[in-house]
Amino acid sequence: MKKAMLISAAVLALAGCKAGDPQLGKDSIDKVLKAMTLEEKVHFVIGTGMAGASGESAVVGATKKIVPGAAGTTYPVERLGIPSIVLADGPAGLRIDPTREGDENTYYCTHFPIGTLLASTWNQELVENVGKAMGEEVHEYGADVYLAPALNIHRNPLNGRNFEYYSEDPVVAGKTAAAYVRGVQSNDVGTSIKHFAYNNQETNRTGNNAVISPRAQREIYLKGFEITVKESDPWTVMSSYNKINGTYTSQSKDLLTTVLRDEWGFKGLVMTDWYGGDNGAEQIAAGNDMLQPGTDLQYEQIMAALQDGSLSEAELDVCVRRCLELVARSPKARGYAYSNKPDLKAHAAVTRQSALEGMVLLENKGVLPLKDVKNVAVFGCTSFDFIAGGTGSGNVNRAYTVSLLDGLKNAGFNVNESDKEATLKHIADEAAAFKASLPDDGLSAFYPMPRPSEFVPAPARLAASAQANDVAIITFGRNSGEFFDRTSADFVLSAKERELLDKVTAAFHAKGKKVVVVLNIGGVIETASWKNVPDAVLLAWQAGQEGGNSVTDILTGAKSPSGKLPMTFPVNLMDAGSSANFPIDSETGVYFTNRREDVGQKDVDVTKYEEGIYVGYRWFDKKELPVSYPFGYGLSYTTFAYSAPAVANDGKTVTARVTVQNTGSVAGKEAVQLYVSAPAGTLDKPVKELKAYGKTKELAPGESQELTLTFPTSELASFDEEASAWKVDAGTYTFLFGASSRDIRCTATAEAAASETPAHRVLLMK
Ligand code: BGC
Asked: Whose alpha carbon is nearest atom 3 of ligand 1?
């Protein structure tokens, strides 16, 4: 007994505790909160600052403490038993440093497929499993909150961070994010759904004012977050950098309290994006509970506001309480003894499997799956150096990336490996020259490498290659990332890429051989002008560290492709409604937050979302524009028939049923989309809107499955700005069962009664 008392006294002394101080985890949050000094409270709502920010690891949000390379930590108050918890990026896997000073172990993480690929699977169960594997790495490497998923809407094809995001459609974005959150959080670690909200361009991302109508906000930009909050209960939300109708999102009480908490019932914590906003006191008052990574200026702003009465201690306490609740539920506070040994082998298998289900077969003139092929000629620099994912905080320090070349070799094909060394040297030389050309702003780690310039083999070499090989595969790669939007030049094939495509195709066709193009890209590119040149086009996205193996599994037919596009591929960039108001090629080509040359340019400081709710297919449908590939599109090696459509509405839930049969000769899965077309009412309505979707299991030839798709009847509503209410018009609704948004296979109708759900009159345009 005496000994035990001695030990606990020693522990208290070590931790700087005074006997009698309440302890988080043992005593109630109320007691702990009451025991905190004002200074402790203000420190606590601010992170611990950016360790290493001015040092060599100039990655936004790097902290060398606890888990090196994690983005941030919370402020510890040892005397009250409040530990520092670790916040680390995502979303394509955990981002921490792979090596540590004086430590021979390695801390690699699995690079899973990019968000856009996960959304392209249209498979919520699969996404949940990927989340589960990611969450295990978060847990076992000692992090507490995973700064993912990212679910902003693909408003324009050129947003540099689209690869992290899911879709142009809020239902796909919300359902995918919800599945991801459920998976990650099943490990008892937290997520942070980001960037809340309207973070649809990187150009001037920390200052841009997005001017958006309340209806477009509610129906398009907020809807995915609403679905995620309601269906998965994320521990935290990360506010975005930008402003909404004149106010920083992190300083908007309308957004962070009225909509997020009062209307949607969110119970967790809101944190800023790193250095987001410009007034710490306003952030606290708005309900932005934690400021990351934390600055002295924010401390001063909050203290000053408390002193002059513009912020009350009661308002501060609301945020402090939420921070305490977050810390209390963390693995760190629960004393979890992490192993630093997640099951990387098992997760490599997870990423390989999931990646192949999100690849989208765009064209196939009878060449895929490859048959009677032994010798394969690969072209395009990226074939030798596959891109696993995008750059910036969404990058992952992986142990390896399987290239297409290696994937093909692993499957037993003979490939032109002799070209590998020269190609890799060419890529490295160009990368080094590019790096040397960068301004000395300490952020060179963030600049996405421009694609390597292609070389086109001489005619004699091409002819010999076509003679010696059974098929040609050309990979075109694109990379992008945080801070930068893509350019219109990046959107199209370069002259050299086009020349490579034309010449390889001519040489192989001359010998009666086929050509396949693989797109190793993170965002939409122009395809209409060249897609009919090769014999097949496979959109592989950026498929994580096992990319080359996953592509090969599709090429060989080990699995039939079943991915479908979560966005539209327009014929021209300027066809997209948002392109009229997007910083396409602002003066510097790309625009970096620290450079202010572009100030005053249209869509740099202020972006007016004049297309309103008409984003993606809603726009192309309304304008009746041709597209290169419609939303929801994707081919398979087999075919499917839809039958027996039925829809019932009981006033609470719409339940739709359809039977899908595999009518082809190989096994495959089919993603089925349920769109609704509303009766004419008072508001302008899209031609159709996605309301639910599902995927069959793998159906054997001839096999059928009935899919049941449900959604709340209230989701038939549109947002009426004048009434500030969600309104369902009475009448007959048509439900469209689609293989894509432009391939509707069957329909059914159901009646709905009128209803009106009031919402707060907030977030108005000024
Ligand atoms: C990004 C966030 C990220 C944070 C921490 C910011 O630059 O926008 O997505 O979570 O850094 O690294």
From this structure: 393
Mean pLDDT, the chain, whole residue set: 93
Greater confidence (18 vs 300) lies with: 300
Question: Interior CA angle at 154 toward 552 and 581, to 5°?
Answer: 135
Distance in angstroms (rounded) separating the CA atoms of residues 439 and 598: 17
Lowest mean pLDDT among 15-29, 128-142, 397-411: 15-29
> What is the tens place of the pLDDT at every residue in 55-68?
333 345 555 578 99
Q: Which atom of ligand 1 is nearest to the CA of 95?
A: 12
Confidence of residue 447 (pLDDT cuts 50, 70, 90): confident
CATH superfamily of 640-758: Immunoglobulins (2.60.40.10)
Measured in whole angstroms, how far is the alpha carbon of residue 526 from the centre of its chain? 21
Residue type, 498: R
pLDDT for res 584? 85
- Nearest-CA residue for atom 9 of ligand 1: 393
Question: Does the C-beta of 89 come closer than 6 Å to ligand 1?
Answer: yes
- Render pLDDT for 550-574 as a digit per residue (tens, 0 to 9): 999 999 999 999 999 999 999 999 9
What DSSP string runs through 205-225? TTT-EEE--HHHIIIIITHHH
The beta strand positions in 214-305, using DSSP E, are: 236-239, 243-244, 247-248, 269-271
273 belongs to the catalytic site: yes
Contact 471, 370 (CB under 8 A): yes
Q: Which of 397, 482, 593 to mutate to test the pocket of ligand 1 (most atoms within 8 A of CB)?
A: 482
What ranges do the domains of the chain cover? 2-329, 351-567, 573-629, 640-758
pLDDT above 50: residue 3: no
Which residues, including other chains, have CB under 8 Å from residue 616's CB and lie 6 or more apart? 154, 167, 168, 169, 567, 568, 631
**Residue of 144, 254, 273, 621 marked active site:** 273
Q: Closest Cα to residue 394, out of 647, 64, 149, 140?
A: 149
Instruction: Specify the pTM.
Output: 0.95
User: Which residues are CB-contacts of 245 (< 8 A; sequence separation ≥ 6)?
Assistant: 209, 210, 211, 212, 763, 764, 765, 766
Atom number in ligand 1 closest to CA 293: 5
pLDDT at 569: 98
Q: Where are the alpha helices (DSSP H) in 441-494?
A: 459-468, 488-491
Output the CATH code of domain 351-567.
3.40.50.1700
CA of 180 to the centre of ligand 1 (A): 18
- In this structure, the number of other CB atoms found within 10 A of the CB of residue 216 comes to 23
Residue nearest (by alpha carbon) to ligand 1 atom 4: 274
At the fourth CATH level, the homologous superfamily of domain 2-329 is: Glycoside hydrolase, family 3, N-terminal domain (3.20.20.300)
Report d(CA 145, CA 267) in Å as an integer.
Answer: 16
Residue 511 to residues 67, 192, 532, 535, 691, Cα–Cα distance (Å): 56, 54, 18, 14, 48
